[in-house]
TrEMBL record:
InterPro entries registered for this protein in UniProt: Acyl_CoA_acyltransferase (IPR016181), GNAT_dom (IPR000182), N-acetyltransferase (IPR051531)
Keyword Transferase: yes
SUPFAM superfamilies: Acyl-CoA N-acyltransferases (Nat)
Keywords: Acyltransferase, Transferase
A matching Pfam family: Acetyltransf_3
GO CC annotation, single: cytoplasm
Domain of life: Bacteria
GO function term, MF aspect, one: protein-N-terminal-alanine acetyltransferase activity
The name this protein goes by in its record: GNAT family acetyltransferase
Family, as annotated: Belongs to the acetyltransferase family. RimJ subfamily.
Lineage: Bacteria, Bacillati, Actinomycetota, Actinomycetes, Micrococcales
PROSITE patterns: GNAT
Occurrences of domain N-acetyltransferase (ranges): 16-190
Length: 204
């Protein structure tokens, strides 16, 4: 796939849809993030170069779109069809980033989900959908997820999906204003030849 367009793409499983993040999502994205501010703050990525200030929504979308055009990221929002709603509701965000082609063929995956919808299988289903797409459509070989050891909900996601625990990375990422340790989890394509989504849905 290197050198070919890998974006935009939309993935669906049941009522869950992963679609590209767009500028017109600003109002809904801002509302969901504001409602979840306290829930997400301990795990919020920060930038030591600008004293931990987060980019504006527009700057974030521009940066992610540039990465997508360069075939180095897949910036999805997680949406869900809800009875009584005319269009799917935004329930989170998932980004496949740091895509490396050539001899590595790997990527890193990060996500967050609305607290009001946590515990309903949305995060593991979304992660499984994105992982299968990266393995089967993009031909990537390895998917990695790095999680703060205190982040119980995210640890349960990788446990449910069977990602391997590859150990601790001291002071790995700048989170919520400081360098933080992370546990690294990974899967390779050979470990889930039938697809991780199929395996997850058959168990849930």
């Amino acid at each position: 796939m290197w050198g070919q367009a890998i974006w935009p793409v939309t993935l669906e499983s049941g009522d869950l849809i992963l679609r590209p993040l767009k500028y017109r999502d600003k109002a809904e994205w801002t509302a969901v993030r504001s409602r979840n501010a306290a829930w997400l703050q301990p795990w919020e990525a920060s930038n030591p170069a600008n004293q931990g200030e987060l980019p504006t929504f527009g700057a974030m979308v521009r940066a992610l779109n540039e990465q997508a055009r360069a075939s180095s990221a897949l910036p999805f929002v997680i949406t869900e069809r809800v009875p009584g709603k005319s269009k799917p509701v935004m329930v989170g965000q998932l980004t496949v980033s740091s895509i490396v082609w050539g001899s590595a063929m790997m990527a890193t995956l990060g996500y967050w989900v609305d607290k009001d919808r946590a515990g309903r299988g949305i995060a593991p289903t979304a992660v499984a959908m994105a992982t299968d797409h990266c393995f089967h459509q993009l031909g990537l070989h390895r998917m990695e997820i790095n999680i703060r050891p205190e982040n119980g909900p995210s640890l349960r996601v990788v446990e449910k999906l069977g990602f391997r625990d590859e150990g601790m990375r001291p002071r790995f990422l700048h989170i919520n204003g400081e360098w933080a340790d992370h546990r690294s989890f990974a899967l390779t394509a050979e470990e889930v030849p039938e697809g991780i989504l199929h395996r997850w849905l058959s168990r849930s």
